[in-house]
Amino acid sequence: MTDTQTAPAGPSSGTGLQGSAPTPDLGRRLRPGETAIRGGLLLAALLSVGITVGIVVALVEPVLSFFRQVDVGEFFAVEGDFAVLPLVSGTLMVTLIALLVAVPLGLGAAMYLSEYASPRTRRALKPTVELLAGVPSVVYGFFALAFVTPALLQDLLRLDVGFTNALAAGLVLGVMIVPTVASLSEDAFSAVPQAMRDGSLAMGANRMQTTLRVVLPAALSGVAAAVVLGMSRAIGETMIVALAAGAQRNLSLDPREGMQTMTGFIAQTAAGENPVGSVSYNMLFAVGLLLFVITFAINMVSTTIVRRYRQAY
Amino acid sequence: MNSAVLTATREVTTANVTGRSRERTPGSLLFLGLLWFSLFFGVMVLVVLIVDTVLSGAPRFDSALVTRYDSTLFPERTGFRAGILGTVWLMLTTAVLAVPLGIAAAVHLEEFADPRRSWNRFIEVNLQNLAAVPAIVYGLLAVAVMAVLGFQRKGIVLGGAVALALLILPVIIITTREALRAVPEEIRSGSLALGATRWQTTWKQTLPSAVPGIATGTILGLSRAIGEAAPLLLLGIAGAVRFDPAGLTSPVTALPIQIYFMTSQSQESYQQAASAAIVVLLVMVLALNALAIFIRNKFQRRW
Hints:
Oligomer: heterodimer
Radius of gyration of chain B: 26 Å
Distance between the termini of chain B: 57 Å
Largest interface: A-B, 100 and 99 residues
Largest sheet of chain B: none
Helix content of chain B: over 70%
Radius of gyration of chain A: 25 Å
Shape of chain B: flat
Shape of chain A: globular
Strand content of chain A: under 5%
């Protein structure tokens, strides 16, 4: 019987098991059931590609019908019913504020965890930082609306801010993406070889100088990737800005004003009553496609930075 | 006196050699203070958030909160029964849809795929990108999927679950792969050496060894999905549903959606109800996270 035959020993035909010694390829035996299972697994893996294709197809079709009704110039306009540029500027404003909060805090936390904390302290502190990412975004939105704007910005700092404003939304969004920046930067710092730190310390530098002038430059590509990924998360976050950033399109550079973002627009339009196929319903997909393209491009930049500029130590 | 000088000298030398004095300059201390601040700023925010929410939701910690339905007539007695049950339904359906698919994809990529093949590398890059796609875009995709499947009704359990499953699928795949990668090669080699096929090895040896890691990753993915409201909005899941979900095609609401709609109302009693509901949601999320940490600490083997 074929079952009792030993399979011919030979080089493994590629198993995905890196670093293993060549093993006899026992998968060569004819087993229809297993072939079917492997086919099923392959299909499941290909589904991820299918999802990407699905996103593009699902977005492109309504977008095409949107642009049959609305001129491209009307979409990429500063004002008008279908103007998207105020939404883009709102998104950029909120994202900028969020990064101003998240980059210093995230890098600081990562530096402490990687350069100062003992392994035990790190094990204890890292989950507390990551807890920030586990809080649902609608909760952060409520917090921005019910606490940050009235208590912090209006009462404590005496700022002349509206009920909804880009500042509160950006600040809270920044806190939310701290863990993203912190945990990726910490990986980058930890990847810097100990010998470089030892060399710096031996030359008489203290720990701060070593961290800032040796470890940080050496990990810069990883840090850049972390910041870029944090940015893409800030652009795509919806509930905080839907609640706290405002519901009016506003092409303004004043963060104290309310301004709608791309995601905020999608959420608001979706929650309203727009018949399927109407122009405003299709505009939702146009903004969605723009959002997808922007975040996709940013993610590609992030992975490229890591791949191209990573120094192999 | 001589010994005192000796001690002093020794201390100075020790300080110089170990670098203690270098670490005590004002600049370094300020820097360390800043690092501490950035580490604990988040915790401070979290504490303020929880205290503020609990205080403003305190008047509503009663049984009506979890046993009654949404009420516009008596906003001070509005409840989140439909939202809590809906969230549970959505979670279970999401898990059924996403977990088997995610694990299967991860097993293929980790155990069977040849990483040198270009299409496998393509799948990998693609997965990284999918993990960073905004949640709301998955909502748009799920709208299209439901249209293709021919469901006319909006706001049903299946639609929401499809969106959430698409959202957490990349997370499950990535964490499952990490769990599989942590299983030592010797276990696979030993099984193969005894004559098991590659699939038998995966099914009987590798997967069981990776179960704690997979469970942890899956639960963390589900805890991300539990608080997600944006994709559900796109599927037309409404805030005011006044009955329990009864099946996959039954209209449903979810806790974060109810919080969203209630926060948009200006009435004081709605704000209180929203705060109280947030506490319920946070308890659910924290319970899932605690479960994940418990599983990781209790069952994870280190080789």
